[in-house]
Design a protein that fits this description.
Elements: H1 2-48, H2 58-70, H3 74-89, H4 95-115, H5 126-146, H6 154-165, H7 169-188, H8 190-215, E1 217-223, H9 227-237, E2 243-245, E3 258-263, H10 265-278, E4 283-289
């Protein structure tokens, strides 16, 4: 029996050492995003929330209120609660999500512990502190979520409730966070609770902005009688793909192909300059595409 276990351990270790470099190459961007995101989030909590006695949202918000009330270590509370949630919801989460959540939670706990005695800004401008702190936490959270990872907490509960009971994540998170902020008013006072609400709002805005900023492109439609120069410029100079849509003028009835492409902001400016110099009578429409998925852009689902 002992020999079998030793042989299995050797095989398992050999397999792990074989696939570890493959995983590292595939996930290095996620690794960096999680590190920077968790670092930003920890700074937002430990330097812009806890020192000013603001409440917060999610599981961290509950842990902060317990910390204010009983003085229990915040990193210890956050870690303990997230471990309990992972054990509870592990069957409803993918292996990848569980592993990245464990890594994120451990990283946040270490960083929060390290930052417990760090200096913070001493100021009476609490509204400014709430906004800055919310922005920093939102930016960190957005980086982690965009990478397809999770910092645990309410994300675990939301995913579990969605898969198990079909509940909408947005509404569920909103109601829970409002209850946490409301409970915080009895511990930190009405004024600090209102400032905490401002911080939570700023955080949610920055999460959305951070996530969309990585995926946003310019959707460009070009209607022209002579599409070949435009096609050549986009494919050869801008190195982007194009789609040609057959179309004709509604009034003239003349055939005028429509060129559709997705470009970065700078590329759309370059295309606009090219058309202005070479085909000034061409019709061009530029709009924001907030998310683009597919080959050459964002993958359909996190790995």
């Amino acid at each position: 029996m002992n020999g079998f276990r030793m042989e299995w351990n050797k095989r398992g270790f050999k397999k792990l050492t074989h696939i570890a470099p493959i995983i590292a190459r595939a996930e290095w961007k996620t690794f960096l995003a999680v590190i920077f995101g968790c670092a930003a989030y920890s700074v937002g909590v430990m330097s812009f929330t806890v020192p000013f006695h603001f409440p917060d949202s999610g599981i961290t918000g509950i842990a902060i209120l317990v910390n204010y009330s009983f003085g229990i270590s915040l990193p210890l509370l956050v870690t303990a609660v997230n471990i309990g949630l992972l054990v509870w919801a592990r069957k409803e989460l993918s292996v990848r999500m569980v592993l990245w959540t464990v890594f994120s939670v451990a990283l946040i706990a270490v960083m929060m512990k390290f930052m417990e005695n760090m200096p913070f800004a001493h100021t009476d401008q609490k509204l400014l502190i709430a906004l800055i702190g919310g922005a920093i936490k939102g930016y960190g959270g957005g980086l982690v979520l965009h990478a397809g990872a999770s910092m645990g907490g309410l994300d675990i509960i939301s995913l579990y409730m969605q898969k198990k009971y079909g509940m909408e994540i947005g509404k569920f998170s909103f109601y829970i966070n409002m209850c946490i902020i409301a409970a915080g008013s009895f511990i930190v006072g009405i004024e600090n609770s209102m400032l905490g609400l401002v911080s939570v709002f700023a955080s949610s805005v920055l999460i959305d902005s951070t996530m969309s900023s990585f995926d946003m492109r310019r959707l460009v439609l070009v209607v022209t009688k002579d599409p070949e120069p435009v096609l050549h410029f986009v494919t050869s100079e801008l190195k982007r793909g194009v789609t040609v849509i057959k179309s004709h003028g509604g009034y003239s009835g003349e055939e005028r192909p429509t060129i559709m492409c997705l470009l970065t902001r700078r590329q759309s400016v370059d295309l606009k300059r090219f058309i202005a110099e070479n085909q000034p009578s061409t019709f061009m429409v530029v709009s924001d595409a907030r998310e683009v998925v597919g080959k050459g852009f964002k993958s359909w689902m996190p790995r």
